[in-house]
Amino acid sequence: MSEKMGSGWLDTPQRYGRISRGFHWCMAAFFGWQFAGAVLFVSIGDKAITRLVGGSHSTMGFVLFVLVLLRGVWGLMNLKRRPAHAGRLGRAAVTGHFLLYALMVVVPSLALLRQYGSGKGFSPFGVELMATRGYKIEWMMVPGDLLHYWLGFLLLGSILGHVTMAFVNRRAKRDDVLERMI
After folding, report:
1. Residue 103 domain boundaries
2. DSSP letters of 37-90?
3. Residue 75's closest CA among 30, 10, 2, 161?
4. End-to-end C-alpha distance for the chain, whole angstroms
5. Fewer Cβ within 10 Å of end Cβ, the chain: N or C?
6. For the domain that residue 109 is a member of, what is the CATH number?
7. How many domains does the chain have?
8. Phi–psi pair at 130, nearest 5 degrees
9. pTM, whole model, 2 decimals?
10. What is the CA radius of gyration of the chain?
11. pLDDT tens digit string along 50-70?
12. How much is the pLDDT for 5?
């Protein structure tokens, strides 16, 4: 990539670039919306506010799935330029990020598998990705039925842990890793 492109756009050992930060904060906002709908549904059930927030769950989940794949590719392309994670805590951070990425791929994959198995169509933003069929494929629905909900809340807990550790590092350790992503 050109030198001009690198200035501010790409990751450096000191800071994440604009593109990485854009992916991060865009996904954070979308996950906030996703989990708001899920928490509303679990806490108050099927109400108008739940349908308002949760009505976009499938489409937003698909958008997040595409974003996490793009972000993963972008992260791999920038791997040698990214800020380092040194020592035991650094290895713990790498492990935590791996868990986050794994869940961000697995949770929507299970939902898409379940959607396809249901025989119902799926057209995010009006673009048909899965046509309606007249039959179900039960074995494709079972993993999503069993795991999407629980792994989704595990993802929420992991995200909350991620946020907590960013603030702990900022306050207690005086290691401002959060500043690299702002």
Report:
1. 3-181
2. HHHHHHHH-S-HHHHHHHTTHHHHHHHHHHHHHHHHHHHHHTTTTSPP--HHHH
3. 10
4. 23
5. N
6. 1.20.950
7. 1
8. -135, 125
9. 0.90
10. 19
11. 999 999 999 999 999 999 999
12. 57
